[in-house]
Amino acid sequence: MADNRASAYTEGVPCWADAQLPDLEAGKRFYGALFGWTFDGNGEGDGGEGNGKAGGNSGNGGKTYDRFVVARLEGEPVAALAPKTDGRMPTVWTVYFATPDVRALAARITAAGGQIVMPPTRADGFGTAALAADPEGAVFGLWQPGSHPGFGRRHEEGTFVWAQLYARDTEAANAFYGGLFHDALFGPDAEPDFGRASLLDVFPAEMPPHFLVHFRVADLGEALEAVGRLGGRVQVPPFRTSYGHVAVVVDNQGASFAVLQR
To answer: Where is the VOC domain (predicted)?
Structure first.
């Protein structure tokens, strides 16, 4: 199996991403046209992998794991879309970091000054998820795999390629995440797919700290034209980074993400 068809992820490696959207069908049309994704089921709990019932605290944090659909590229899982259960919650992409023990990691997060936004929540046999926030309030997910380890394809066109944390205090962010995910970030076999940068490098001062999920595209200009044609917009025009040529966009429902050309 090729490296980009990952079957397992070590702790601290981004392993999954999902979007919470007001209109699931509109999201499927947008991302299907933009990235060539196909989708399992219709979000009503009857569509194969990814539509299992979530146990435990499934409604906490405005997050649900009982009505999501898996996005696929050439048959492999690459992301998920889910309908929002609470209109007060943001329309947003969330990145999930792998862990073999979500409860132990949640305890380490709170001990390090973060907080748990949604306690560990089972999604049938697929795995166990939680949502956490770092000391500056940037929200991220945790994923303890069951039958679903995470991305089946990554680092290629139409799939996840990078997660960037935009923080107000990058030194504090490096200390927090370095303590949680030291081996994934700095170990000899590190493949973090995860960077930290100053919020003010890209966004206005009023923007809160956050994670930005990046998807790879073949041609950045063509991708931005497609975003506009599909009802989205460019939030931050193209800029150069150490990991590629990036633009921040908003989909047709308000969820921000980045497209990256390498």
So the answer is: 13-145
CA 177 to CA 174: how far, in whole Å? 5
Averaged pLDDT, 115-126:
91
Query: Does residue 44 carry a pLDDT above 90?
Result: no
Helix, coil or strand: residue 136: coil
Q: What is the extent of the structural domain holding 209?
A: 160-261
Please check whether residues 25 and 113 belong to one and the same domain. yes
Whether residue 233 is contained in a domain is answered as yes
Q: Cα–Cα distance between 89 and 62 in angstroms, integer?
A: 6
102-111 helix and 170-180 helix, angle to the nearest 10 degrees: 140
142 and 106 Cβ atoms separated by less than 8 Å: yes
Number of independent structural domains in the chain: 2
Find out whether 5 and 153 touch, Cβ atoms under 8 Å: yes
Quick check: is 53 in a domain? Answer: yes
Question: What is residue 105's predicted lDDT score, i.e. its pLDDT?
Answer: 98
Which among 81, 116, 145 is the end of a domain? Answer: 145
CA distances 174 to 100, 115, 151, 179, 252, Å, are 22, 17, 25, 8, 33
Say yes or no: 18 and 130 in one domain: yes
Same domain, 117 and 30: yes
Is the pLDDT confidence value at 153 over 60? yes
Helices 24-35 and 220-229, packing angle to 10 deg: 150
Place of tokens 């490296």: 3
Instruction: Indicate which CATH number applies to the domain containing 177.
Output: 3.10.180.10
Distance, first Cα to last Cα, the chain: 23
Residue with tokens 């931005």: 224
Q: Which two tokens stand for residue 22?
A: 């007001």
Q: What pTM, to 2 d.p., does this model score? A: 0.91
